[in-house]
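Running log. JK asked me to keep both predictions on one page so they can be read side by side. First protein, sequence followed by its tokens:
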Amino acid sequence: MKGQIYADSLDTYQINIINITQEIGQVSTKDGKYNIRAKVGDSILFTSLQHKTYTLNIEDNNLRTSTSIFLEMQINELEEVTILQYNLTGNLSKDIKQVETDFIDQRQFGFRVPRKLAKVERELRAAQSSSLDFLIMSLNGEMKKIKQRIEIANIKTDKNRLLRSVSSGLITTDLNIPKIYIEDFAYYCAEDKHTVSIMDKGDPLALIDELKLKAISYISLKNLKK
């Protein structure tokens, strides 16, 4: 199936074309042309952040001739809000006295302060919360890229944890790792889930024993002389 999409802002926003039935997807060209595999009875979704989603149920004529799609701009309206509830003057030192606030520190009730999610983790949460976004990002490869970025960020975090857990002197003297390879060795260890699990247990002696084994394989891998 192929055709032409007509909509505003096509030069800056490409349209996602998704065959929901076959779970395949494409994006339009910058001039709005599209081409996607389809058969009679399939449901095709045309969607973007800037436009209202349009669904087309494929009929025989859609496969025989070019199909034009017209998309409307998506307009998001906020609910009515009252901005002068406290008769604010614009002078912060005066206005703050008029607004009553109650602050509760959740730590006083035994709750931990929530960990602030990294930007890439927030992107993943947002995509997973919307089945449509999740489908689109899975088809165009963005979901895979986000998960790879999270994995890399986690490895970097574990690398830093390892370097805080053991001294550089121990790594160079006891493990025979040259000083210039300390950080690379830490990355090597952080990529091993077994090593990370031992570090998570908080047992320094078990961690050192594990690092000794990792050092042997690392030195062999790098062909370093003791």
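And the second, directly underneath as requested:
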Amino acid sequence: MVQYATAAEDKEARRDVILEAALALFLEDTRRLPTVAAVAARSGLAKGTVYLYFDSKEQIFASLLVRDWRDFIGLISGYFASATGTPEQRLAGFIEVYVAHILDHPALMRLDSMGYAMLEPALSDAALADFKLRFSGALEEAGRAMEAALDLRSGEGLTLLFRTYAMTRGLWQLSDLPEAVRAFPGFAGQPFARVDFGRDLSCALADYWRGAWQAARSPARPEAQNS
């Protein structure tokens, strides 16, 4: 019989066990979400026990997504906290670290691409607010580290990170196609078939940041001129 965890650290540890089981199942087939029953079985817990920690499978995977994004954003914060060289070199290093992590963790973007259409609509208002607040909090921390490293004004780092995230999500969704689609006769010559996510993300970020960073450091921003 499963013993209910009572201590805060035991509850957190059990929650982590559930999330790790969910991730392992998701990695086996990243185009659909495993059921709560499957996650419970992989965790070695009763289904009812999983429901003590999460209201639904969508909340499980939203929590997993927030955890993985927070870990990644923490990596970005750590990079800028210790980055050396000129601001241009720090920026180039950031893009390299960013793209490498995304490519090394394909489940992150696959799960993220499900967020808007599958995860968020199934969450309660309170759970969705918590999801957004935790993600935003991590971005704000990374934004501050970025501002210090790149000599940006307060708030500029967060704005640039949000836009970087949006660009990454959009490019991923354009490039993430099933192999059966890619093998379809005549598809190889189409523009979507020529998208190389890693290469194109690196180029897109370099182009965007080159202009955005210079604009963010300029005292004569377009919005300031129009105010």
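Observation for JK regarding the second prediction: DSSP finds eleven helices and no strands in the chain.
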